[in-house]
Amino acid sequence: MNLQVLLSRCFAPFGFQRKNAKCPKENRDKFVKGTSNTIRPDEEDHISTLPDDVLSSILSLLSMRDVVKTSILSRRWRYLCATLPDINFDLDETFLDCTRHRGKIVICPKKNPMFVIGVSRFLNQYLGPKLRSFRVSFCCYEESTSVVDHWISLAVRMRVEKLDLQFVCNDILYCDFDDYCIYYHSMYGDDTKVEFFWWQLFRACDFLKHLCLNSCAIMLPPGSRYKVFNGLSTIDLIHVPLVHNELQYIFRSCLNLESLKVRHCRLPATLCISGLARLELLVIDTCFGLVEEIELNELANLVTFEFCDPDIEKLSFSCVPKLEHVFFTRRFPQNFLEAVGNLPELKTLRISKYTYWAAKTIDSPYVLRTLKHLELFITDGNVHDKVEIIAPLLRACPLVQRLNVVVSLQSLPVDAIDN
Questions:
Q1: Residues 6 or more apart whose Cβ sits within 8 Å of residue 195
Q2: Domain assignments of the chain as residue spans, ordered by start
Q3: Rounded distance, CA 184 to CA 273, Å?
Q4: Which candidate, 305, 316, 327, places its Cα nearest to that of 374?
Q5: Which regions form coiled coils (predicted)?
Q6: What is the SS3 assignment for 66?
Q7: Quick check: 352 and 411 in contact, CB under 8 A?
Q8: Reduced DSSP (H G I as helix, E B as strand, rest coil) percent helix, strand, coil of the chain, to 5
Q9: Residues 6+ apart with CB under 8 A from 290
C-alpha cells in the first residue's frame, strides 16, 4: 500500500476521504490547459526542489488538516507530512464544520472519537526518525484515557523533546457560572476527570525537555522511588490538582528544572519550593487553596518570580541571591515589603493592585534600596487616592531610576479623563 493511500485512510475520520486525494478530471484538465499565466506541465516545480528542512519549515506553519492535504501535490510531498518533527493536533483546527457560540468555536462532542481515531492512526504510521514536539488539544473523556496513554508511550519511544497535552473542553469554557462550579468541583474533587500514571509512562523518556499539562491529574507511583529526569528543563501545569505532594515529587525528580509555571491549580495551604538549584523562572498564577504561606528556599539561580493570588497571607525568601525581578498581582501578603526588602539583587518590581492594598503596603518603614525599575498598575479608587500613593512609593524606593504608573481609565470619572 503506497503512503498516499495510507495517509488518506488515516485521516478519513477527519473528512479526508481517498476520493479527495485526486482532483476531478475536468478540473485537472482545466488546470493543465489553462491560460498563458498558468503553470505548464513541462515547467519545473521550484518548490519541490527546496531542501527537506525548508519544506518542513513551510509545513510547520500549516494546520495538520492542511499539512495532510499537501501529500497529493507530488511524489515527493506525499512523504513529508508523515516525517514532520513537530506535530500539532488541535480539535478546533481539524474540524472546520463547527458552530459558534458568542463568537467562539464550539466543536460537536461527536467529533471527539473521530479525532482520537485519526491521531492514533497517524502516530502508528509515523515515519520520522525523531519526534521533536508533540501537541494535542481536545476534550479528553474517560473512555479516551487509555488511548492518550498510548500516544504518550509512542511519543516517548520517538524520543520526543517537547510534550504539550491540552485537555480543556470548549463546552466548559462557554458554560454558565453554575455549570462551571460543578465542573470545577469534579475536576478538583475526589473523582478527577483524567488521571495519568505520569512517571510510569515517562520512565524511559531521557530526551524530554519541555512538558505542559492542562486539565489532567498526575498519579504518583507507589512507594518512594524517584525516577530522575535530568533533561527536563521546563514544566507548565494548568488546572492540575497538586494537593497530594505532587509538586514535591516533581522537585525531587527534576533537579535540572529552569522554568516552572503553576497556573489555576489546586495547591495546599502552605507551599515550600526549595532545592531547585537551576530554576530561573517561577510563576504561580491564581491557584486555589494557597491561603497561608509560600516559601522560596535555596533557589540559587532564581531570577524572576511572578505571583498572582487573592488570599496569600505570608511570603518568605531564603537563599535566593540572584532574584532580580518580582511581579505581584491582586492582594499583597502582609509582610510583602519586608520580604522583598531583604533581596540583595532586586532590580525590578511590578505590582498590580487595588488602591487600598497598594496604599497599605507602601506605607511601610521598609526601604527597597537596590530597586531600579518600578511599575505600578492601579485598577480602582478615585484620582486623589492614586496620586497619594506616589509619594510614599518613592520614599520606599529612593534609588529607583525608572517609574511607570498605569491607571485604569475605567475607574476614573469622565471629567478626570478629559482633564
A1: 145, 216, 217, 219
A2: 1-84, 85-224+231-241, 267-419
A3: 26
A4: 327
A5: none
A6: helix
A7: no
A8: 35, 20, 45
A9: 267, 268, 269, 270, 271, 284, 309, 311, 312
Q: Domain 1-84: which topology? A: Monooxygenase (1.20.1280)
CA distance 160 to 146: 19
C-alpha R_g of the chain: 27
Does 384 have pLDDT greater than 80? Answer: no
- Tens digits of per-residue pLDDT, 207-263? 899 999 998 888 777 765 667 788 899 999 998 889 888 888 888 888 899 999 999
Q: What are phi and psi of 339, to 5 degrees?
A: -70, -50
What span, in angstroms and rounded, lies between the C-alpha atoms of 364 and 396? 8
Is 239 in contact with 265 (CB distance < 8 Å)? yes
Q: Which residue has the higher pLDDT, 201 or 305?
A: 305
Give the CA diameter of the chain. 84
Residue in the block written with cell 512507594: 223
* Three cell numbers, residue 225: 522511588
CA neighbor of 294 nearest in space, from 333, 321, 237, 246: 333
- Residue count of the chain, please give it: 419
DSSP symbol at 77: G
